[in-house]
Amino acid sequence: MLTLSSITKAYGGRTLFSDVTLQLNRGDRLGLVGPNGAGKTTLFSIILGEEPPNDGKIMTERNVVIGYLPQESTPVADETVIEIATAISPEFVKLRRIIKAWEHDHPIEAQHSEDIHDDVHDRYNELNGYQIEAKAKQILAGLSFREKDFDRPAREMSGGWVMRAHLARLLTQEPDLLMLDEPTNHLDLEALLWFQEYLQGYPGAILVISHDREFLNSLVGGIVEIRQSKLLRYRGDYDEYLVQRDAAEVQLLAAYKNQQREINALQDFARRFGAKASKASQAQSKLKQIDRMEKIEAPVSDDKKVSFSFPQPQRSGQRVIRMKDIHFAYGPNVVYRGIEFEAERAQRIVLVGPNGAGKSTLLKLLAANVTPQQGERELGHNVKAGYYSQYRVDMLDPSRSVLDEALDTPSRITEQFVRTLLGSFLFRGDDVFKKVSVLSGGEKSRLALVKLLLDPPNLLLMDEPTTHLDMSSIDALLYALDQFEGTLIFISHDVYFIRALANKVVHVNAGQLTHYAGDYQYYLDKTKSLSARAALTAGAKTEAPARNSTPKPTVDRKEQKRLEAEQRQARSGKLKGQKQLVHQLEKQIQDLEKRQTAITAELEKSETYQAGSKASELNREFRHNAEEIAEITPKWEAAATKLAELDAEG
Q1: What b/e readout covers 581-593, taking b as 16+ CB neighbours within 10 angstroms?
Q2: What's the mean per-residue pLDDT of the chain?
Q3: Quick one: which of 189, 198, 242, 188 has its CA closest to 219?
Q4: Using an 8 Å Cβ cutoff, are 242 and 31 in contact?
Q5: Helix (H/G/I), strand (E/B), else coil: 494
Q6: What's residue 119's pLDDT?
Q7: In a 10 Å sphere around its CB, with 0-12 CB exposed, 13-18 middle and 19+ buried, how is residue 161 labelled?
């Protein structure tokens, strides 16, 4: 469907891509990954023809339609949300406007749309106009738009909502190739889960840039990594890619070391015997042998990693914060009426719920960034709150430099300490003199984190902290928050991030708070169970027996005990079998990993390369073992999960 052949692209002496090739076929679902600045968005621009490569060709099948969602929304004029969502072609937009204008001017006659000019109506029907509009509305609803928003001018809405409208347009259009650049950044958790499920049934090919590993794991069947100006393609989801990449790096490092040993040995021979007449030709032969070698490049990680940890704050009292009988409204729009909320020391609470339900408002109330019209907010003993806004610009002064913004803290600190901390967040050298106004989204996120670290709270309130961070930065943030000894209350649409941190869930919807005293999986299981029970109750009410129905005979106590014993025995048998399976899979993985260690040691010995084809055989075995580990690991994870479920049942 689409082929990039020998593409090279450079900017001002920096090469982003060097002689790279990529084949995209119909039905492919690929994730494009790499550190910030590696060239992911530039590669999209080259595919779209917006930027020419310095060298190479792009070949596309005839009549292939490509749809693209950029990271940032494009300016809008007077279009309504539904007009954006149905703008699948200029012709369709024009026909729809003619029909809607006619219906507006002739409200009674609009019931008989055949009265519209025949050519307009016929062509609109040919394009499946009414079906497309119905489909667009269904997609908009899935992306959390309310029906009353469909006819609102998009310019009245935030950039995130405009992006959703453009996303709805692409899904309505269904291009042959869907190219998405960080599509989850502007979605709340519920819209994200709907979108994820919708894409699983998408009929076209998908190429997506995302820092959300759970999203990638649920969607893609391959990963393309940009690394050291190359495109490296891996089979499987994101987790499988990590396993394969690590195995490939170990193998490459071993091969590089061995080649360097061989080169050093040949050079040493040439140095020692080059001056001897009897050995001079052999010495020259060794040097030519080096020249003929296909050199293995040293594996160098080009991932710039953020490295930090939260300074441990002063210990707070057991009760950290309490809100009682809180009423809050934005003008006539009532968000909360009489809610209660309490958090204790060391809790990690995630707020979930549909967009517009009031999650960010709740976080602002907890942070005292907004004042309720009624009710009390009480901080516990020794509590200091810190707020990390979803809109980083709220926390930063765009007119300042990075260094001046970081120095603006109540803590007594030296400029040297601040510059060291900024360096660990990738603000190095002259970067500290950049204006905040010119920083990227990821840079603003990192600077906002620096400000929190310079004045550490013991109650941390974070609104979408992973937005604009790349995966290595998210991992670093996760590690730091995992070590954080204070209390954390946060909002996130990143399921991987939520699963790693949350030990309590609060569902926010229609001004009501529902508390779940467990992690995210507990919340999912509980809500599924409640939904099933509600459906069962509704069914029971519908199919209630007649009053004169003969009651079912009860099972006598002895028989009941016998049945319970059989059930316990069956559970015990299942548990034993599952334990054996988990142990067997663990043993296979351990044996393979042990063998991989032994192979690596062999490959690092110079004599291995003097024993005929031994090195090639070891390399083949190493690759085979890596594939087997990648295949067995998900089976072991599934078996271990099943074992935990059986344990819980018992």
Answers
A1: bbeebeebbeebe
A2: 83
A3: 198
A4: no
A5: coil
A6: 72
A7: buried
Closest by Cα among 113, 117, 94, 114 to 103: 113
Could you tell me if 364 and 341 are in contact, meaning their C-beta atoms sit under 8 angstroms apart? no
| Virtual torsion, Cα 513, 516, 520, 526, nearest 10 deg | -110
C-alpha span between 390 and 492 (Å, rounded): 10
Residue 444, classified by CB atoms within 10 Å of its CB into exposed (0-12), middle (13-18) or buried (19+), is buried
Question: Given this model, what pLDDT does residue 30 score?
Answer: 96
| Residue range 261-318, pLDDT digits in tens | 989 988 888 888 777 777 788 888 888 888 988 888 777 665 566 666 667 888 899 9
Question: For 201-343, where are the alpha helices, taking DSSP H only?
Answer: 213-219, 238-273, 280-292
**Are 508 and 364 within 8 A, CB to CB?**
no
The answer to whether 31 and 208 have CB atoms below 8 angstroms apart is yes
Contacts of 18 (CB under 8 A, 6+ apart): 8, 229, 230
Q: What are phi and psi of 88, to 5 degrees?
A: -80, -15
pLDDT at residue 327 above 60? yes
Widest Cα–Cα separation across the chain: 117
- Grouping H, G, I as helix, E, B as strand and the rest as coil, residue 109 is helix
- The C-alpha angle with vertex 280 and arms to 276 and 282, in degrees rounded to 5, equals 130
| 105 vs 15, residue with greater confidence | 15
* Cβ proximity of 30 and 60 under 8 Å: no
* Element counts in the chain: helices (H) and strands (E): 19, 18
